[in-house]
Amino acid sequence: MNFPESSTALLAAPPLVRGHAHRAHVVQFYTEDAAFLDTWGRSIRSTLKEGGAVVVIATKDHRNGLARWLTGRGVNVPDAVKRGRYLALDAAQTLSRFVVEGWPDALRFAEVVGSAIAQSAAAAAAGNPRVAAFGEMVALLWEQGQGEAAIRLEQLWNDLGRLQEFSLHCAYPISGFCGNKRDELFLRVCAEHSDVVADGDINMPMSEEERRSNIARLQRQSEAVAELLRTTEELRQSEERFRLIVQDVKDYAIFMLDPRGHIMSWNLGAERIKGYSAAEIQGKHFSIFYPAEDLRAGKPEWELKVAAAEGRFEDEGWRLRKDGSRFWANVIITALRDSRGHLRGFSKVTRDITERQKAREALQKANAELEQQVAEKTEAQRRLLESENSLRELSHHLLRTQDEERRRIGRELHDSAGQFLAMLRLNLELLESSAGKEETDRKLADCVRLADESIKEIQTISYLLYPPMLEEIGLKSAIPWYLEGFAKRSGIRTTFEISADFARLPREVELALFRVLQESLTNVHRHSGSPTAEVHVMLKDGAAVLEIKDQGEGISPWPPAESREDWLGVVGVGLRGMNERMRQLGGKLELSSSAEGTTVRATVPIRESEETSSGVESA
Predict the structure, then answer these.
(1) What DSSP character marks residue 247?
(2) Fewer CB atoms near the end CB (10 Å): N or C, the chain?
(3) Helices in 50-172 by DSSP H: which ranges?
(4) Which residue from 337, 218, 322 is spatially nearest to 276, judged by alpha carbons?
(5) What is the b/e burial string over 364-381, where b = at least 16 CB atoms within 10 angstroms of the residue's CB?
(6) What order do you get walking across the sheet with 543-550 strand by strand?
(7) Does the structure show a pLDDT above 80 at 571?
(8) Angle subtended at Cα 522 by Cα 516 and Cα 526, rounded to the nearest 5 degrees
(9) To which CATH superfamily is domain 5-232 assigned?
């Protein structure tokens, strides 16, 4: 493998240890603990056999693993420990003795580790003071993400090797060097060692070419391990998601079937919904969940056949629990095939939707009842509308009959009773002129006065029932005449404004507006306490408009919150009848009230030919 020129210096071994077997600084990158322990174990056994001493600075698991490996191959570890030729130290505890604020201290390292090397050298057999150290303190730092501290510790080991004679075997898991960001650190670690080995390499010392070849091979291996770790992690996450989704789901029964329909797996949701434990149900045919009528119809086998042919089957229907009770289920069966298309089985997802089915049935029942109620209400509304139309026709007929009767009575009072009283007055005047006695004269004068008052009252009643000038001249003259009499009778000051060119309207329109005026002024007199009343007649937007305003107490509160639309019920039958008159003519009656007074507005649409231009006169 060809390395970039910039990395050549990093590949070179430390000059003070290169080529010396007893002073070598070896690093091993391993994939499995077993291979790493085997390499260390053989080196330790060889050193002890030759009379040398061993210093092991490792984790508890690895220390125990080495002891078992050596014991299993005939090495008397307790005896070596007793003789001081096998010193086993805990890596984390040893690190804590010389690492200060995350960085190895050189003086403390030389004191702690150097004394251990010297102690072991003194215990070695005479004539062979060889000491072999085996450490993974650097691996602990690397695992903690302290790569620079690990490299510094490797340098301290090299510095110590210049002062004391020993060989050092370091070990790193190759998985710790996966990823492009650690390539340079990997080369820097290799640069601090005389030999670089992988699993199974024990030939030391090695040539520079062998060393470079091992580094290249380890880089490729780290890449492969990185890919394997990524794949393994993805698989682990996928399996974890599957476990969480399938095994721990409680709202769905999710289980696997073999191609014939026998149950192969079972989740918590299936146990909750169907009542069977996994031990009870696995191996049984899934038809156990179907009611007798479905079994007779061959439904379970048919569902598998459809799922195998179409890839998926979905259905809703009754299913059975372990206790024999039924529940309404939504079922989805999916065919599972391998990469060659062979059917491997089925996945089955069942959901208990009994409550939803009950709600659906209740909703259907409620809808049917609602439809029945709507039909009944529609029929009642139709009848009510017919009744309302009949009442309106009757009301219209009664109003028209009332107007005609008032007109007849008014004319009769004027033409008959009025004439009779006039003749009576005339005769009384004749008697008064011929009488001689004073008492008789006085009584005759009283009779004449009473006859005058009767004539005036009958004329007033006649005009109020049906004013003749309304029919003869129209609103423009009838309203001032009526206001004059109203002011005299009530003591309320009135004003009147009407468009100068306000023309005659149809007889029924003029009569309806006049009746609204009469009823409104009657309410002002009886209820408002207002000292004044204003009357306006105008043309606006193709309609004749009559407004009566007072300055009385008003209607409070206004409008009534409980029935804003049916406000006429508040002011009495009179205005209710006037409102009906407006409706019959296509118009409307409006009433607004506040603390400043009340306004009644009657609006009746008129033909375009009857509209007039502006211009206002006062009366």
Answers:
(1) I
(2) N
(3) 60-72, 77-82, 91-98, 106-123, 137-143, 147-163
(4) 322
(5) eeeeeeeeeeeeeeeeee
(6) 588-594, 597-605, 543-550, 532-540, 493-499, 616-618
(7) no
(8) 150
(9) P-loop containing nucleotide triphosphate hydrolases (3.40.50.300)
